[in-house]
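Thread title: Can someone regenerate the structure for this chain?

I was given the following input by a collaborator and told the matching structure tokens would be attached. They weren't. Posting the sequence so someone can regenerate them.
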Amino acid sequence: GENKKIDFNQIPLEDQNVLSLFRNADTTGIFQFESDGMRNFLRNLKPNSFEDIFAAIALFRPGPAINIDSYIRRKNKEEEITYLDPSLEPILKSTKGIIIYQEQIMQIASVYAGYTLGQADILRRAMSKKKLDVLKNEESRFIKQSVERGHSRETEKEIFDLILNFANFGFNRSHSVAYALIAYKMAYLKYYYPKYFYSNLLSSVIGGWAKTKQYLNEAKSIGI
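Best answer:
Regenerated them for you:
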């Protein structure tokens, strides 16, 4: 009977106790973070900020996963963070020079190739629907507009190829943040109010013996 009302809008998003659950892959019962693959990724990533949590959600998908090792090395300062063009630095700095989100593609099109927001949205839609014919069309526009802005042909071809490569799996930054918020709130409860966390978790798997057993064992292991 703790009878506490938790205002989730007030909880600190950089609470290192909560983030330690992600760092230690202690994420049983946490939305989006329960799979073995994700846990292995967390152990290597060692997230120490909320930004790392939502980057993890976007990276851990077929496609961006090819960048996981590079992202981890850059995060651990074992690999230099580089940008194909200096103008991309403000857009990609928070993700260590790696494109992770659809929004970054739209910003690159705008900053690098002078796209209007409307044009950038056409590009985004073509990507999310994987319309390769539209994307091929966009390539000529992208290169033409980049040339007009004085960029070198080689770099813009590389940048557009990055975009095309990304087109197969782009994830929305806002989706990642929304998912990460749910996961973080669950981790907050798990850390500070474990009894409530486990009782809710067990209610959610009634009838599923394997999960029930797993959750009970874990609750016991922390002395509940």
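The chain has twelve helices and no strands.
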